[in-house]
Write a structure and sequence with these properties.
It contains eleven helices and twelve strands. It is of the alpha+beta class.
Length: 445
């Protein structure tokens, strides 16, 4: 039941986020006089819909996205612009788009353009999206992903200010846990047995809450420095100064040598081992801290997007058993739902930590969706934004040098790119979803 609850919460949050993303597009399109004929959450067969004014609102069977239909996204071709079919009552040209059958990509562009214009009536001409000023088109298309980033910000801000940022953790040399025995790194989840040697920290009398001040005379200014001197000590004598209840105590023991991970990979080395776990405290901060962290997230997300095809290829190889799946790699919404379910149903994690993790997961997905949609490639929102900006530069340049107005930028010419990108995204999405079923990323611990 708890697992299902976590999945439902995550799924519902994403559906709401998608709905609000599309509201962003629709609200500004209508504000600028555009005609929005459809607003749907999901894809596939229609489950429910209702007509309100000129807009049909509804839900589709597959809640993996959404869309708004803004009339006139694709302008007519150059030949059609040159030869209007007539004029409307305001004297504006009315265009009718013909289909072409010369060349595969030409056919695709022509068919898409014709489908776009089939339901456009003469009175719609002044309200067509492509006729909007470039800055209005940028605003309409940016409003959707901006909503997702705003949702992420609205979650991150109070979370960072109270609970803290779990992705920015400060580790202090204050003892949070003392190992009872020395267990091999490969078996660190099991309990101690009578055959396991007692941990050096337990033998020395170190207790939870002790602040380690020095180790063999070396100041324990931070956990990384303390960890280095412990590991370098091998099985030598250890003199440890701790502060307990305001009093400094000197404790002695001998560290032991055992295999421990030395980095982010699976590599292990024989190093000195004491048997203490430090205190990890998420960093807290307000408005400026949140803005700085989201700026850093933007950089990390951009870097991750560059590596995304390689990472997805790694997931594909993990599916067929050629390599282990990277636990820090990308996951689909199926993987996100699984992590949410495992978190809520975890018996050890307390409810405050469960709530914080769920909020971080929801905010993280929203942030990624927002940044991803700004990528300047069709069919993403960023592709339309890039086209509008190019139109502004081109027309501004012509005006500056008193050249003829080059007119609206024809986004339809980029549709072949959109098809390639769309198919690529579909394939990567399917690989990630299959990977999340076959070789899922699981909650640590």
């Amino acid at each position: 039941m708890l697992y299902t609850l976590g999945v439902v919460i995550f799924a519902l949050a994403l559906v709401i986020s998608i709905a609000l993303h599309e509201v962003g597009h629709m609200a500004f399109a209508k504000k600028f006089g555009g005609k929005v004929t459809q607003y749907f959450v999901g894809f596939g067969p229609t489950v429910w819909s209702t007509q309100v004014g000129e807009t049909e609102y509804g839900l589709k069977a597959i809640p993996l996205g959404g869309f708004v239909k803004i009339v006139g996204m694709l302008p007519p071709g150059a030949d059609d612009l040159a030869k209007p079919a007539g004029v409307d009552e305001h004297g504006q040209p009315v265009h009718r788009i013909r289909r072409s059958n010369t060349g595969m990509f030409t056919q695709l562009v022509s068919d898409a353009r014709a489908a776009e214009w089939e339901l456009i009536s003469p009175e719609d001409e002044p309200r067509l999206f492509y006729r909007m000023a470039w800055w209005k088109k940028v605003t309409v298309m940016a409003a959707g992903p901006a909503v997702n980033i705003a949702i992420a910000f609205a979650i991150f801000l109070p979370l960072f200010a109270t609970y803290g940022n779990t992705a920015d953790v400060r580790i202090d040399p204050v003892v949070a846990d003392v190992s009872a025995c020395v267990v091999p790194a490969s078996e660190n989840a099991r309990v101690c047995t009578p055959d396991d040697p007692i941990a050096p920290a337990r033998a020395a009398g170190i207790e939870v809450g002790d602040e380690i001040l020095s180790f063999n005379g070396a100041p324990a200014d931070d956990w990384e420095a303390l960890q280095r001197v412990i590991r370098d000590n091998s099985d030598g004598r250890a003199e440890i100064v701790v502060r307990r209840d305001g009093e400094e105590l000197t404790l002695t023991t001998n560290t032991t040598v055992t295999a421990r991970p030395t980095g982010e990979g699976a590599e292990v080395e024989q190093v000195g081992f004491l048997g203490v776990t430090p205190t990890a405290s998420p960093q807290t901060g307000g408005l400026l801290y949140t803005v700085e962290e989201m700026g850093a997230m933007t950089v990390r997300t951009a870097e991750a997007l560059v590596d995304l095809p390689v990472k997805v290829w790694g997931v594909a190889k993990a599916i067929v058993g050629l390599e282990e799946r990277d636990p820090m790699g990308p996951v689909s919404i199926v993987g996100g739902g699984r992590l949410a379910g495992e978190t809520v149903s975890h018996e050890v994690i307390d409810w405050a930590d469960k709530g914080a993790f769920l909020l971080m997961l929801i905010a993280g997905f929203n942030f990624f969706i927002g940044v991803f949609n700004f990528v300047p490639l069709l069919p993403l929102d960023g592709g339309h934004i890039a086209g509008a900006l190019y139109e502004a530069v081109r027309r501004g340049w012509a005006k500056l040098f008193r050249r003829p107005d080059p007119g609206y930028f024809d986004v339809a010419k980029l549709l072949p790119v959109a098809y390639v990108v769309g198919v690529s995204l579909l394939v990567m999405g399917v690989v990630l979803i299959v990977g999340d079923f076959v070789v899922p990323v699981r909650l640590a611990g």
